[in-house]
Amino acid sequence: MNGSANAPAKTIVITGGTDGMGRELARIHLDRGDTVVVVGRDAAKAAGLPGAEFIAADLSLVSENLRVLEQINARYPVVDALVLCARYFRSTRFVTAEGVEGTFALEYLSRFLLGHGLNEPGVIVNVSGPGVPMGRIHWDDLMLERGYEGVAAQMQAGRANDLLGVDYAARHAARRTSYVLINPGPVATSFAGEYDAATAAHVADLKRHGRPVRDGVEPIGARIDAPPTAPLTAFARFAPIGLDDPSFDPDAAGRLHDLTRRLLHRLGH
Fold first, then answer.
1. 134 phi-psi bin (left φ>0, alpha ψ -120 to 50, beta other)
2. What is the pLDDT of residues 211-244, one digit of tens each?
3. What does the alpha-carbon distance between residue 120 and residue 180 come to, in Å, rounded to a whole number?
4. For residues 151 and 103, is the Cβ–Cβ distance under 8 A?
5. Do the beta carbons of residue 121 and residue 80 sit within 8 Å?
6. By the number of CB atoms within 10 A of the CB, which of 11, 48, 86, 253 ranks highest?
7. Are 253 and 159 in contact (CB under 8 A)?
8. 240 within some domain
């Protein structure tokens, strides 16, 4: 990350900021003197980031996301960057107390709520997997009630975030916010989750061969330091991904937005 030590201080909000890439990003910006708000579940891990403001929250719950938004919007009228990193892998299907499949809730629905609900951040950096060809939306089974598989849940969340970026940019083109989708590639991060034996072995291999976390966050930091001027951009690390890729179909993006709004209405929000 090449930000100047003399650059104006920024206000950065990071979900999943107590672990892995989110934590490294928080540490770098704290060292620069930026205001860093970390949202996560583990206060003990947050204690290792002196100077950060920690908001304890279970972001798989809609009610918790709304509480976080209220708190941040009240305290920080200007947020320079919202970085969406929170993830948690589950080999076994999990349903939240609100009745939402856990991966969809944490890795998509939370990002939808925080992105749309925060007071016009300068840039939203959604760390997901833009353009990954095997990801798809299970339109007739968003909650994956039929034949759940952990990787399929992750892939659906990744594609949902592609579509979230497309729809957000279309709806808010006149705002100052630029929306960035980033695939950081293989990174030896913490890979928080609950894994079956076969998937755990794959994760162990990724940790052995992935980039160091500090290298992994470089493309994220670059977009914070110099937000793109376009309403929506996507990157595989530093390489731009063309938005004509089928992953970014605007009709599918609008369809998912409408389904999400109906889901939130059913949940009482």
1. alpha
2. 899 999 999 999 999 999 999 999 999 999 999 9
3. 14
4. no
5. yes
6. 86
7. no
8. yes
